[in-house]
Amino acid sequence: MANNMTEKVVSAETNPISEEQVVAYLSANPNFFASHEYLLSELKVPHKSGAAISLGERQVQVFREHRDELKNKLNELITIAHENDAHFEKSKRLLLNLLDVKSLDEIEIVVNEVFRNDDNIDFSSILVFGEQTDYPVSDINVLSLESAKEQLGDLVDSANAICGAFDKEKMNCLFPSDAESVRSAAIIPIRNGELLGIFCLGSKDVTHFDSNMGSLFLSYISDFMSRILPNLLVNARSQKITDDVPSLLE
Fold it and tell me: How far is CA 9 from each of CA 14, 19, 109, rounded to the nearest angstrom?
């Protein structure tokens, strides 16, 4: 009987402790190293450089890495905040200036004035869906909705602004005069019950308008232009009819 008990004790003492048991014990006793500080200097942790460092040194290193990560995230948030402030100021100026617009011809002038000093927005254009003969304006690109769908595909069906780098055919449709220079663009739908047109902003920088760009600034523009464009279109068609009357009477 005694021999059996001895064998059991020896067997229990010689069984190695698994990593899972160590992890479970330290997790259940988070203050373990507080009462065994000497172990912090004796335990060695492999480092990326190949050299082994103490657990205490490794902990300090982890804290520094975590601090640097938080600092980078904070800097990113600050940068985004500055960009949002700039976008808000531009959208406010654009909206206020658009309130004074009386015709389609004036929209392009107002847009160019607002974005003149923006280093990242180099081009703008407006695509109105309809027939060219309906709108006697030279600065506005007029295209039938059917033709637009053929050239722009899914872009026409989007309810929200879309940003990115688009293929040559789409750029030619959106920026007829500057397609070769536009590297990225924001496509902003103008709707009032139905799709009336598309307002476009373009940049020479391929990364400026990307899929991660905040949409609040673009939504403001879309909502406001969707309010003022219908009246301008009606006025333009009325002007066209008025201009055509004398020629019909001759």
Answer: 9, 22, 92
